[in-house]
Write a structure and sequence with these properties.
Length: 220
Amino acid sequence: MTHLLVTGGGRGLGRALCDEGLARGWRVTATVRRAGTAPAGAAEIVMDVTDAGAIAALAGRVGPLDVLVNNAGIIGPAARAIGPLDPAAFLETFRVDTLAPLAVTQALLPCLRTAPTGRGRVLAISSQMSFMGYAKSDHIAYRAAKAALNKVMQGLATDLAAEGIAVVLIDPGWLRTDMGGPQADLEPAEVARAILSVAGGLDMSRSGQFLRHDGTRRDF
């Protein structure tokens, strides 16, 4: 049975990914900030993804793992590049959106190396706002953090290629979530179905790529 772990599984796209995994008959583990927010049927781990101690203990709580989706993230301050600059808020956005996915993936490598299906796969939820050809400046901390996430996950893909662990970035599109707002284009459940279809068929030929939620390749 495929074992899926989703960070930030208590709401939005993360919860939709957990729901879809359960609907497929997969074993699902969700990390959440508040107890009782993971979907029924999912194993719940209450933790902050920036907590080094919690991350260090994660592998012992998870066990063999097929699919890791680094989904937890924050939008951060709305400020543009000309300010006002809030260094603490800027750095917190990087801690959650860039460093936490890298740290969680590193911690769970022993679990991915013993994947029940024989091939561990890592997906990281990025954003169209990270695209280097998209020059808008609102929420500059978020844009920069997601662009940095793309680079560290690309580096992981390079480092893990010899082990056969595929790593990809996912642009989920504009979602109707607390972050995306009610005017957004896409329903989380629809996008979650597409992302887990990508995860199910992911192989090393696609590792290191930046993909749309439907699996088509996009530019960094």
